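Narrative of activities, Objective 1.

The group set out to show that a structural description can be obtained from nothing but a protein's sequence at a throughput compatible with the screening campaign. Below is one input-output pair from the validation batch, recorded exactly as produced.
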Amino acid sequence: MQELEFYSGIRELLGDLDPNEYTNRKLQFYATTALEQLAAELEYLIREGELIGLVADATTYPLPEDLLSIIWLSYGNLPLDPASTWLWDRDGTTWRAPTSARPQTFATMGRELFLNPSPDAATIAGTGPTMRLRYIAAPTRLGRGEVAGLSNLDQTIAQYLTAVHWCMSHRSAENEARKQDYLAWLTEQMPLARKRAQNMIEGFYPSWRPLTGRTGGAR
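Output recorded for this entry:
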């Protein structure tokens, strides 16, 4: 679905709005909000790249603005173990000013990434100055071509969600009726969209397998 078609459909849902008065630019705020909500709900937009530039002895690094959640973080093609600052405190781990070495674990707090240990100059010189990050992202803007990461069917869901956000800001009896009808439709469609996004391989159903075995000495 091209951008022109995407916005045209939204105007149709809102009572065939005049495109000269309600331009794509005026609708973009509502569309971007809807797409960000969908990204958090469906986890459909995956991005990856060498985004973390390492500095010797530096413990904290800013996270990308569009990051919703981290899938994995690797350095030198080896994954780092996820942790948390609370876990480090509980275990007595020195993480606020650690002895620099090769990073082994990472945690987040707010919009910052914490590495433990912090990288030392020798490690950066030998392995490289960047870490590779794969994460679930929120779209920061609409492209000029098509809505990236969504199928045509799921872009229709984005159109309906955009219309709901627009009706919330343009209150009237007619718009309230539209909003309720569209929310009812979205309630039916969102579980199906979530299934499409998270289990795309037909016939394959991921499952949990309990870990069994002895964890201590026999008595």
